[in-house]
Structure formats: structure tokens, C-alpha cells
Amino acid sequence: MRIGELSRRTGVNAHQLRYYEAQGLLDADRSANGYREYGEDAMLRVKQIRHLLGAGLSSEDIAYLLPCAVGELPELLGCPELLAAMRSRLQRLDEQMDRLAQSRDALADYIDAAERTSSESYPPFDGAEPEPVPA
Fold first, then answer.
1. Are the beta carbons of 56 and 19 closer than 8 angstroms?
2. Containing domain of residue 57, as a range?
3. What is the pLDDT of residues 74-113, one digit of tens each?
4. DSSP 76
5. CA distance between the termini of the chain
């Protein structure tokens, strides 16, 4: 099938399908006239890619994991390399979440401090834009 048909059947636009191919996630043959030709297995592969992207995996991670993928959701066979890659990704996500939590706490502290000084020194905020500060 050509890229337009694969796009219609999977709901993934052709630009994304070309990206998947460029990343080594999806294979296409070229016909004599240069058009991409995908096999029937391409629909399953696109669904697997979409689910893995939805899990927060990068295209690099997915390229590594796809040989271990079975089924649409997909189920990933527990080969040691696969588990190491997923544990590494999970660790990176945990670290990002920790950094975000720290940023959130710091911002909440700044807001609390600003509200305390605001209520002591200034009238309540009415939603209007603040007056410009003279230069």
C-alpha cells in the first residue's frame, strides 16, 4: 500500500510516517516510479510505534524495542537489553519528575512569600495590569 492509504488506515499523517521511516522505525520499499510501498505489517508497526510514543519513549528507544514487540499494544518480550533500556528511560522520567517537583515547590514558596508581603504592603490584587514603574 502507498503512504496515503497507510495514513488513512492508521490515522497517522504521511509526514509522521515519513519521519518514522527516517528514524528506522518503519520500512518501505520503493516502486519503479519511486513511490513508497508498505506491506500489510506496516499498519501493526505504526500502531506499536504510536503506543510506545504514548508511553513517553523516544524514537531512539522505540527503534531499539521494536524487535521485541509483539501485538498491537504491544507486548514486549522480556529480553535483557529491552529491560535495561526501559529501566533507563524510567529512571530518566523519575529524574525529570523530581526536577519538576523541586521547581514547583520553589515557585510555590515564591508565591507564598509574595502574597505575604503583598498583603502587608499593598492593596489586594484586582486583576488589572500593574502601573508602569517610572524610569
1. no
2. 1-77
3. 888 877 777 887 888 889 999 999 999 999 999 999 999 9
4. E
5. 66
